[in-house]
Amino acid sequence: MHDGIRAGLSELIADPARVLAAPAVLDRLSHDFYWYSPILRGKLASKCCDVAVQAVNVEEVLAVLRFAGRHEIPVTARGAGTGNYGQCVPLEGGIVLDLSQMDKLEEITPEGVAVCQPGLRLAVLETEARKAGWELRMYPSTLAKASVGGFLGGGSGGIGSITYGQLRDFDNVRAFEVITMEDPPRVVLHEGAAVHEILHAWGTNGILARIWFALGRAVGWTQFTAAFETYLEAFRFTQSIAVDGIWTKRLATVFEWPIPSFFTPVKQVVRDGKALVLIMIATSQLELLRVAAEAAGGEVTFAGKYEGPRTQPLLSDYTWNHTTLWAMKADSAYTYLQCGFSPADCEEQFRLLRERYGNEILFHIEFMKNGQGVVIPGAIPVVRFTTEERLNDMIAYCRSIGVFVANPHVNYLEDAGRFRADNIQLRAKERYDPRGLLNPGKMISFRREAVAP
Ligand SMILES: Cc1cc2nc3c(=O)[nH]c(=O)nc-3n(C[C@H](O)[C@H](O)[C@H](O)COP(=O)(O)OP(=O)(O)OC[C@H]3O[C@@H](n4cnc5c(N)ncnc54)[C@H](O)[C@@H]3O)c2cc1C
After folding, report:
1. Ligand 1 and 39: CB distance under 6 A
2. What is the pTM of this model?
3. Which residues span the domain enclosing 55?
4. Is residue 149 lining ligand 1, measured as CB closer than 6 Å?
5. Residues 205, 309: one domain?
6. For residue range 213-265, what is the model confidence (pLDDT) as tens digits?
7. Distance in Å, CA 201 to ligand 1 centroid
């Protein structure tokens, strides 16, 4: 990139030290956990921005976008960079807009809505909310690092989704201010249903600048694990807890053996050869849960209070997409899929997959509530990777037997599972980023030439 561009940006930012150009820094800020996918690994490793800017307020973001628009330079927003589809990897270089320093928690309203800047870390929000009698409705297993803006921009749900659904459900995201890439850029408030135009659009149609994020009433939680002889026994027990509204829970997870063998730091909760169940349960229901697990043939292997993000061991570090990380640490040939099984037919779907793929697919279930209020067996199965053809065959076969797949091995929104069929994210991109400068290449249905001048 032209040195003049860096110099121009330095004039817009109060402290020029926040305009970054060192190659190692640019490489780090251009990458996320894309390497989770053996397919994306080769495609994205060499991609890099030309310059990174650490904005600290809305005025600086507006100035950077105005400058980028004038010079037709791509801009890719970045929170903490924990996305696992290469969501914040700049495919066409340009500017990485690092928002991690816009991290203020402005307020928690008496109704339990957090008002914050996008770079606020979820763990900080969880800690502060619990002090005020609230807690996050849901968080990704990357709680410690991930930002609120990055979660809304690229995440979907996580711990808590069994009660509150996903980010897109039940007014969990109340509103946000979006900075557009129009000429000139503007700050636009999106509230209610209008949040869905921007939510989970990977920063392709606006930059989230101020967020109203609904919280839930804080609960005293206990982390609970139990080992079962077989996967099906573990699954059926967990499903019975997951779907029954009498249980107050934040997490209901099942791991088929040998997945628990990958969890070396907590091997005391694992039993050799057995499936493992991990539940976050209201402490007031712990003894009832213990009785239920033992009656179902389980051995309770751990029960310990959750005291916030610093709890040790923090068992959510083994759930959701962290499970994949532990599997890859144990054997780099492992990768994953993101699936939704049918509540009624899942056991037949498990059987069909096992019959066709054997232990190439290992079951890891995360129960979650869908938008209709039904608790379903979501899943992030661990998959042994051999070839791209074999992986695509597995995805196609899953879909043919009614298993939903959000493909985590593509780098664009349309096939990655959360793209809206009503195209409102695309319409918002046409409106707010007609020149296609925000995170280009990630919304492939956008056609610059289709936007009227
Ligand atoms: C080990 C592991 C476990 C994970 N577990 C989960 C999980 O349980 N649930 C889940 O949903 N995800 C999960 N993820 C994915 C990821 O961690 C989450 O999506 C996380 O919330 C991303 O936050 P971040 O701050 O790192 O965002 P980033 O990776 O920085 O950004 C994510 C996307 O949002 C865009 N973006 C960032 N900030 C803004 C902004 N202010 N405005 C507009 N767009 C923006 C970026 O351009 C990018 O496209 C996991 C990933 C890993 C590696």
Report:
1. no
2. 0.97
3. 3-98
4. yes
5. no
6. 999 999 999 999 999 999 999 999 999 999 999 999 999 999 999 999 999 99
7. 11
